[in-house]
């Protein structure tokens, strides 16, 4: 059985994430979606339990996908699951630059684990968690960008949006 992991903060999961994970599930025998428990580079909007629940709902149709939380190096998480690959989605060139650097560091730490890149499908190549949160916070509709449970929760969190930019002193 060949296992791959798909690590990320999933704050929140988007249709782009679902696209990449679904395609990885068609390639590997088992895919473990690793949710970063406490990301160092950003403060999550959603608690870990809610991020996991969103993923469970969005990926329920994939029998060979499991979800787990991790708080260690991604290569240690991969080793824990005896994974042969780390699957990462790429949307734009800036994603590649970051992922290339991470790949080199991971390869240094765990040369036995390959990184596989999956290009986002064109219809979701522009979707990012941060973009979704920004749109939702201003009351925009994100229903086509995220799974239904995520869209409903964002609508609950921002029922009227937070309004536009503040007026300048000259206005």
Write a structural description.
This protein is of the alpha/beta class and 171 residues long. It contains 6 helices and 5 strands; from the N terminus they run βαβαβαβαβαα. Strands 3-2-1-4-5 form a 5-stranded parallel sheet, with helices on both faces. Helix 2 links the parallel strand 2 (30-36) and strand 3.
Strand content: 15-25%
Major β-sheet strand ordering: 3-2-1-4-5
Distance between the termini: 64 Å
The radius of gyration computed from the alpha-carbon positions, rounded to a whole number of angstroms, is 17 Å
How many individual helices?
6
Structural class: alpha/beta
Helix content: 25-40%
Q: pLDDT below 50 for ≥5 consecutive residues: which ranges?
A: none
Quaternary state reads single chain
Note the overall shape.
globular
Give the gist of this structure.
This protein is α/β, with parallel strands linked by helices. Helix content is 38%, strand content 18%.
List keywords for this structure.
alpha/beta; 5 strands; 18% strand; 171 residues; globular; 5-stranded parallel sheet
């Amino acid at each position: 059985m060949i296992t791959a992991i798909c690590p990320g903060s999933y704050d929140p999961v988007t249709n782009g994430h679902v696209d990449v994970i679904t395609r990885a599930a068609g390639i590997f025998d088992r895919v473990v979606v690793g949710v970063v428990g406490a990301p160092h580079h950003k403060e999550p909007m959603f608690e870990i339990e809610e991020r996991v629940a969103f993923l469970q709902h969005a990926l329920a149709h994939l029998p060979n996908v499991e979800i787990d939380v991790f708080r260690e190096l991604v290569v240690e998480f991969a080793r824990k699951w005896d994974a042969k690959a780390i699957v990462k989605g790429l949307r734009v060139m800036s994603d590649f630059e970051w992922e290339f650097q991470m790949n080199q560091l991971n390869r240094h730490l765990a040369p036995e684990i390959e990184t596989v890149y999956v290009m986002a499908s064109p219809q979701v190549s522009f979707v990012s968690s941060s973009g979704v949160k920004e749109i939702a916070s201003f009351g925009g509709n994100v229903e086509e960008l995220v799974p239904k449970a995520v869209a409903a929760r964002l609508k609950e969190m921002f029922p009227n949006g937070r309004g536009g930019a503040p007026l300048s002193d000259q206005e």
